[in-house]
């Protein structure tokens, strides 16, 4: 079997199909077109967004925290899967990202009470959030911004809830033992911490640029 066709059919064509399968609304398409031009981490791919929506629906998410607003795109996908009375809290230290997210939510006619946008870093905002009160915590920004706060992020998740981190397979660097750049090192630390935590059941999904998923067990 060639390198282009690994077991399971993980081809570029398969990835493209997964993105096409995840149909985005016009508001999501517009949010993506803005987000790709913003500084920071790229927006979630359609396939990743669809998985976030499914995960949110699977835990009947009512309270979700997003670290990094991603121009609002991840938030729109999460809100699609959350309960109708669910509230998304998105924090970001980049005002441009927050402005883009605010416009994305306004364009999609998201009720003001369903999305709470907070300007600030994880170090500034996490102490103000309630431990064990969230069904999902979604990390969509640079891992360097939240790697050292991973224990606090995990503390936010209720038993049965889920932590997701987007982007760890980007560029294939996490598997390259010679890669020692700060972002790759941060990803390795996050993956190691999650894998070794006996209170978590975790997996890496090779969709988009990679999605690390961990569910907190009782």
From TrEMBL:
InterPro entries reported in the protein's UniProt record: Cation-dep_OMT (IPR050362), SAM-dependent_MTases_sf (IPR029063), SAM_O-MeTrfase (IPR002935)
Q: Which UniProt keywords apply?
A: Methyltransferase, S-adenosyl-L-methionine, Transferase
**In terms of domain of life, where is this protein from?**
Bacteria
Keyword Ligase attributed: no
Q: Which Pfam families match?
A: Methyltransf_3 (PF01596)
Q: Name one GO biological process term.
A: methylation
A single GO molecular-function term is: S-adenosylmethionine-dependent methyltransferase activity
What PANTHER family does its record include? O-METHYLTRANSFERASE RV1220C-RELATED, O-METHYLTRANSFERASE-RELATED
> Under what name is this protein listed?
Predicted O-methyltransferase YrrM
- Which species expresses this protein natively? Blastococcus mobilis
């Amino acid at each position: 079997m060639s390198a282009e066709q690994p077991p399971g059919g993980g081809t570029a064509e398969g990835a493209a199909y997964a993105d096409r399968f995840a149909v985005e609304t016009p508001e999501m398409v517009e949010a993506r077109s803005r987000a790709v031009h913003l500084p920071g981490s790229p927006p979630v791919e359609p396939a990743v967004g669809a998985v976030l929506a499914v995960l949110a629906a699977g835990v009947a998410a009512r309270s979700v925290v997003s670290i990094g607003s991603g121009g609002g795109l991840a938030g729109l996908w999460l809100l699609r899967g959350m309960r109708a009375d669910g509230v998304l809290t998105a924090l970001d230290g980049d005002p441009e990202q927050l402005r883009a997210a605010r416009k994305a939510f306004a364009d999609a006619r998201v009720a003001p009470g369903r999305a709470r946008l907070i300007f600030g870093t994880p170090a500034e905002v996490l102490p103000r959030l309630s431990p064990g009160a969230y069904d999902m915590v979604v990390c969509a920004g640079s891992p360097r911004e939240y790697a050292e706060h991973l224990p606090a992020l995990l503390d936010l998740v209720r038993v049965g809830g889920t932590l997701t981190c987007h982007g760890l397979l980007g560029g294939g660097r996490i598997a390259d033992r010679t890669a020692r750049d700060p972002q790759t090192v941060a990803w390795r630390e996050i993956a190691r911490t999650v894998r070794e935590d006996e209170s978590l059941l975790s997996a890496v999904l090779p969709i988009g640029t990679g999605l690390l998923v961990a569910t907190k067990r009782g």
